[in-house]
Amino acid sequence: MAAIPVFRQCARRRPGLTILMITTTMSAFKVLENDLPCGVLHQFCPVDTPAAIDAFLCYWKPSAVILLESELWPNLIMVSSTKGVSWALPLISLMLSKFALIIPLSTTQAIRFQLLQAPPSIINFAGDLKYVVEHDMSKRNIASTEDLKEQPSDRHVWMAASVHRGEEQVILAVHRLLVRRYPDLVTIIVPRHLQLAHHIVEELQKEGLHVALRSRKQKITARGLVYMVDTLGELRHLYSLTPIALVGGSFCPGFAGHNISEAAAAGCAVLTGFHVGHFSHMINEMQRLDPL
């Protein structure tokens, strides 16, 4: 989603520009397909082999390539560097020297690029694109969220977003505690991956909890209900339903956190765990301005 404002700025400044966006997964495409600006084309990323990449570039003939939140292919180079293989650093240095511009999120990232021998002259700061994601909503999204707003209008609501496997137990424990004090509670759960939704629903039903599924358009009616969002591309719009948002992917070792700016922009009080990875710079900045 952070790429959308970039596309719109490019289109404003260069009306005749053709933009080709590539993604590596179907789920990423599903999230973006309804929000791509007019004139932006989409393709799936080719397999990272010399023949496939050469054929792809020869066909599309791009003038420039921008990598957003993407691995530096081939993965072999990055994995080798972590294992101390001696030839990895020269190859990374050669690869980074081909970039015209590198925009790190923080000073720490800039230092890491320099340690990988990226030319200092091409490293510049421009802020985090996650802060500039536009929050305009299509009529379809407005209608769907407005419909949901009316359902729990007089009830206590909180949301757990981007939940990973293992974190559902944390959410369940919090739900049990809160429902004792607020019997009319609605807990909204948005799994990070759709395939996790079925697993969480089974766990909740084993506990005897009422569960409503977003994909089946089930209503928020029962007291102490859990509303499972088993659909794609709606998270940033759903934040408007709740005053409190817990952002997952942060409660178990090995996790690296997720974007909290969308929840904050919607006016939510934001909660997160300790395992936030490279999102620590965003969290530190928000704590400085308005503590989480």
Automatic annotation (TrEMBL):
It is an enzyme of class 2 (transferase). It catalyses: lipid IVA (E. coli) + CMP-3-deoxy-beta-D-manno-octulosonate = alpha-Kdo-(2->6)-lipid IVA (E. coli) + CMP + H(+). Its EC number is 2.4.99.12. It comes from the Eukaryota. GO terms for molecular function: Kdo transferase activity. It holds the Pfam family Glycos_transf_N. One of its GO terms (biological process) is lipid A biosynthetic process. The record marks 69, 130 as: Transition state stabilizer. Keywords: Transferase. Residues 2-88 form the 3-deoxy-D-manno-octulosonic-acid transferase N-terminal domain. GO terms for cellular component: plasma membrane. Belongs to the glycosyltransferase group 1 family. Glycosyltransferase 30 subfamily. This is lipid IVA 3-deoxy-D-manno-octulosonic acid transferase. InterPro entries: Glycos_transf_N, Glycos_transf_N_sf, Kdotransferase.
